[in-house]
Amino acid sequence: MSRAKEIFERTFSDRNTARKSSVQNESDDDSSKEEEKIRKHKREKKRKRVQKPKPRGGRKEVSAFQIRTIPPMERVTSTKYPEILTTDSEFTSAEPQNELVLAKSRFFDKKSTSRVEYDHVKPCDYPFLRHMLQRKPEKQFDMHQCNDRERLRANQQAISRNYEESRLRPPIGSERECPMGCDCEGLKITNAKDKAFILVEFLLPTEQKHYEDTGDLPSETRLCLMCKRKEIARAWCNVRADNMGVKRDIILPDYRNLINVEGEYSLSDCIVTSRYVWEGILDPIVLHKRSAYRLIEKNGIPYYEQWRMKYPQKNSEHFFEAPLHQSSRTV
After folding, report:
1. Is residue 233 part of a domain?
2. Residue 43 lies inside a defined structural domain of this protein
3. Which residue of 8, 71, 309, 318 shows the fewest CB atoms closer than 10 Å?
4. 55, 60, 61, 65: CA torsion to nearest 10
């Protein structure tokens, strides 16, 4: 009996020992995997820590820049800051200023001469002159019912086409050239190329007759015909662009052309004023177009021919029978 009991106890203990060892082996495998996972995580963490730049040690430097929100105040007195009445004391030099002396001498020489030069309008004076010239359009104005036409027309001279074409040449003898000089429209005719020239000043028929009789020219040099046409067209365009009119006692041109008359100009080549706004143009004036001229030669003298300004037909309409509204043209 005791022998059987001993064998049973030994068998039972061996069975328990085998089971415990298997369980222990399984737990050892799991722990080794867990430890390997922990070691791998630590290595990755250490690798990231090494790659990340280390912060600078120590405290940050404090900027020495000081911000002043209020500027220093100082009292201005006449003794410390005297009033500037002249710049001679500020811009004086021991060497003579030749440019200044030359400019002064030319200025006084110009003032001492009896001849008055033609000076173009300064840009700073243009707004004032435009204000003096223009006015708001009159609501009840009608050109056909204007009673001042004859009085205003008395201040204009009628000029024929032949007379105007005789002035499209350079000056001869004692005649003077256009005061615009290098800006003269005669130099801007493209088809003339290098043969372009400055035109002679444009005298009205009465002034031309006085010059031929006495040899005296007007004290003020006149513009040439092309420049005169250009200035009239520019003033007319400015008035129309500003949506304004011109004062009733002002006329832009001092002459008028003959329109729709045999041998003269056609209405299609002219500037025509509006019927219901006084624009400073009483009768049609030829519109300046650079492409309308070409260079020719007469008796060895160069001329500009108005070859693109057609002659009127015999049955063409008169000016006052033209349409009421005339579209503006570009210069």
Report:
1. yes
2. no
3. 71
4. 120
